[in-house]
Amino acid sequence: MQKLGDFKLPNFFNYPPYFTLQPVRDTRDKQVQLWKELILDYCRTEKIFVIGLEEEFPLFSNTVIERTLSHEAREAFLSALVSEGRAEWMDKGHRKCLILWHRIQDWADLILQFVRENGLDDSVMTVEEIRSGTESRGTELHGMDRTILMRALKHLEHKGKLAIFKGTSTDDEGVKFSL
Predict the structure, then answer these.
(1) DSSP states along 8-45
(2) Which of 41, 46, 127, 176 is the most interior residue, by most CB within 10 Å?
(3) Residue 52 dihedral angles phi and psi, to the nearest 5°
(4) Phi/psi of residue 38, nearest 5 degrees
(5) Strands 162-165 and 124-126
(6) Nearest alpha carbon to residue 179 among 130, 129, 123, 125
(7) In whole angstroms, what separates CA 55 from the centre of its chain?
(8) In the predicted model, what is the mean pLDDT of the chain?
(9) How far apart are CA 74 and CA 123, in angstroms?
(10) pLDDT of amino acid 5
(11) What is the reported pTM?
(12) DSSP 91
């Protein structure tokens, strides 16, 4: 089985037709599903949150079989993730895509679990501590994309689970948990 770093690639990754958009609808549907799962699994494993459509991305080419996804195929697979709420275009030109390997609600649930497991109820943390502090090491929150984190925190704020405090810079924004 071929690997990309420590990530094990699925068998279809070595099948040349999967690097070309398939014209038959049933085949294309299967192809799109396989690529969506691969992109989400890879991004989750490698903690990748943004894919640039016009930038090098390891999954979009396979040197072993000398195949590369076309721009159209890349956009089709990412657009399929967008239509399912698993990604969002970051610009109108569809050049950058924010990958949501967890939906915002799921990230919010992970934050609540983190707060409970670490006894942080009624405590204050900075946004940066949640993303890169010692408490978050070894969790999915560590190294999390700031945009996604802020959206998950705002979701929890709307539910009354926390309050976000603005600082003088983005580095000192605070969060007070109240579960």
Answers:
(1) EPPGGGG-GGGGS--SSHHHHHHHHHHHHHHHHHHHHH
(2) 127
(3) -90, 120
(4) -65, -45
(5) unpaired
(6) 123
(7) 17
(8) 92
(9) 43
(10) 82
(11) 0.87
(12) S
